[in-house]
Amino acid sequence: MADKKLVNYLQEGQKRGYPIENLRASLSSQGISQEKIIEAEKKLQKEKSFSGKKAMLFIAGIVLLFIIGLVVFNVFQSPKEEETLLQPQLEDQPSSTREILG
């Protein structure tokens, strides 16, 4: 497993704008083996790709919630229009029992 300190070193160095080659050379000059450096680079790449996937999932979730909101809004709006068309007008109804029997 990659040493977390090496991964952090590479990550911070890249954030500060140092080329990965310079970071590798610096670690190598401190006596760190190429195997450990490569392992740390692979781990860093996995972390970067995972954070990119998380961002995509977050955006997809927001879009999905928006679509669900639109569907729910339309479902609750439609019956109100149909109800007004199906309900009889009150003016056409007799207002009392006497009018019905009379």
Structural commentary:
This protein is an all-alpha fold and 102 residues long. It has one domain. The chain is built from 4 helices and no strands. It has helices at 4-15, 20-29, 34-86, 97-101. Helix 1 (4-15) crosses helix 2 (20-29) and helix 1 crosses helix 3. The mean pLDDT is 81.
Shape: rod-shaped
Biggest sheet record: none
Rg value: 34 Å
Strand content: under 5%
Domain tally: 1
Low-confidence stretches: none
- Count of helical segments? 4
* Helix and strand sequence: HHHH
Helix content percent band: over 70%
Mean pLDDT across the residues is 81
- By DSSP, the count of extended strands is 0
Structural classification: mainly alpha
Distance between the termini: 95 Å
